[in-house]
Specification:
The chain is an alpha/beta fold and 232 residues long. It contains 7 helices and 8 strands; from the N terminus they run βαβαβαβαββαααββ. Strands 3-2-1-4-5-6-7-8 form an 8-stranded mixed β-sheet, sandwiched between helices. The longest helix has 19 residues, at 166-184. The structure holds zinc ion (ZN).
Length: 232
């Protein structure tokens, strides 16, 4: 497997994904998050407990995983991904996990991973709907192939407005880790997972690249992270 994995966003998705990757034998996990642990996080962000309240998520997650999975190396990165540090951090790892909480950040990470040819696994969850998309840049569809433009805030329900079940976001995080392992071991086709917990449906779909995708097609865009859409 690709053993150096960067988890960008260690929240409702990043916590279970990092845990599963550590369990599977990852040797080096970068854990990137600028936020602190809050009481409202604890029911779904499973790497933290009450003793971590107020601590950096990146450092608390790194400590938890390093103690539990020796000789795993964990690197806490208490920074938000931005245009100044994206190349430095993404280039230091073999594979990237998108555990981010806002759509514009997810597009920003998508565009950088595509630009750098870095394999990554996108995931998102709102209320009862979740999706996971493993991406091999230049070979499979990226997030922007499926959604060319970031939807405006009024067009998308947010986690804050619609809510998200802790058990369901964990399930999607574990599925994200599973797809990361498949991707890193070149096992089978890379498919888009769409899961609906309300209807109890899970589908895997073939996603085709968009030849005029602005990220992996002929053009390229870099997003500004300005408008919050979704928070875990
Ligand atoms: Zn694309």
């Amino acid at each position: 497997m690709r053993n150096r994995i960067l988890v960008v966003g260690v929240g409702g998705l990043g916590c279970p994904a990092a845990l599963a990757l550590a369990e599977a034998g990852a040797e080096n996990l970068g854990l990137m998050d600028p936020d602190q642990v809050e009481l409202s996080n604890l029911h779904r962000q499973i790497l933290y407990s009450e003793k971590d309240l107020g601590r950096s998520k990146a450092e608390a997650a790194a400590d938890y995983l390093r103690k539990r999975y020796r000789p795993l190396r964990t690197v806490p990165i208490v920074e938000a991904l931005n245009a100044q540090n994206a190349e430095k951090f993404i280039s230091a790892y073999d594979l990237v996990i998108d555990g981010l909480d806002r759509l514009e950040k997810k597009f920003f990470l998508n565009d950088w991973c595509v630009k750098m040819g870095k394999p990554f696994v996108h995931a998102g969850v709102v209320r009862f709907e979740g999706q996971v998309l493993p991406v091999l840049p230049g070979q499979t569809a990226c997030l922007r192939c499926l959604v060319p433009k970031i939807p405006p805030p009024f067009a998308m329900p947010t986690c804050q407005d619609a809510g998200v079940l802790g058990s369901f976001s964990q399930a999607i995080g574990y599925l994200q880790a599973h797809e990361a392992l498949r991707l890193s071991e070149n096992r089978g086709p890379l498919l888009l997972w769409k899961v609906n917990a309300q209807e109890r449906q899970a589908r895997s779909l073939i996603s085709r690249r968009n030849p005029v995708c602005e990220a992996c097609g002929q053009g390229h865009v870099e997003n500004e992270m300005t408008r919050p859409l979704c928070a875990f």
